[in-house]
Design brief:
The complex is a heterodimer of chains A (112) and B (113). Helix content of chain A is 0%, strand content 54%. Chain A has 112 residues and is mainly beta. Chain B is globular, with a radius of gyration of 13 Å. Classes of the chains: A mainly beta (112), B mainly beta (113).
Chain lengths: 112, 113
């Protein structure tokens, strides 16, 4: 079955630097991959979606890449700010049913 | 548009009891999914409803059930509660398109004593 790996350890980044989070998966490449942000005690919030045939997607300070050869997606936050501190989740859409497969998330801490 | 709402926000129950959680999706969204989230486990998919029909189901025991009403509001029921059912239960709604983003509610924090 499909598995997703996100770094379980918190990622500490200095304010102003670029934060890079990793989402690795096994087996088949998903048709779509989504990234969400979750703050403590709240539901996840959608950030970006990237399709299988797309290499890169950008939105303001956010950038997502998708490498089907490496079976990996990278999520970048440039010019990071303390307000970017949160847990970031990736989710795979295998295009075979209506169910998303979720990673456990990576906690990002931006230090001022 | 109003966001996804969930009630209650917090709930404390004892083992053996049953509980019903409610979710109101964004107006116009007919798909509602339920998830269980525990520390370190990530989001575990429970089930999805679309137009009052269960379209997909995760790997949870039969104690977990749900339904959807004609106005797309959804309820989730857990019977014979166990300590391990303590978690944040999240509901998410989305538009017709399968690939579209999911909009989550704030969740219901269930504590089983």
């Amino acid at each position: 079955s499909q598995k997703i790996e996100q770094n379980s350890e918190a990622l500490n980044i200095q304010e102003g630097k670029t934060a890079t989070l990793t989402c690795n998966y096994t087996n088949y490449s998903p048709a779509y991959l989504q990234w969400y942000r979750q703050d403590p005690g709240r539901g996840p919030v959608f950030l970006l979606l990237i399709r299988e045939n797309e290499k890169e997607k950008r939105k303001e300070r956010l950038k997502v890449t998708f490498d089907t050869t490496l079976k990996q997606s990278l999520f970048h936050i440039t010019a990071s700010q303390p307000a970017d501190s949160a847990t970031y989740l990736c989710a795979l859409d295998m295009d075979s049913n209506y169910q998303l497969i979720w990673g456990a998330g990576t906690k990002l801490i931006i230090k001022p | 548009k109003a966001g996804v709402t969930q009630t209650p926000r917090y709930l404390i129950k004892t083992r053996g009891q049953q509980v019903t959680l409610s979710c109101s999706p964004i107006s116009g969204h007919r798909s509602v999914s339920w998830y269980q989230q525990t520390p370190g486990q990530g989001l575990q998919f429970l089930f999805e409803y679309f137009s009052e029909t269960q379209r997909n189901k995760g790997n949870f025991p039969g104690r977990f059930s749900g339904r959807q009403f004609s106005n797309s509001r959804s309820e989730m029921n857990v019977s014979t509660l166990e300590l391990g059912d303590s978690a944040l239960y999240l509901c998410a709604s989305r538009w017709e398109g399968i690939r579209n983003e999911q909009f989550f509610g704030p969740g219901t924090r269930l504590t089983v004593l």
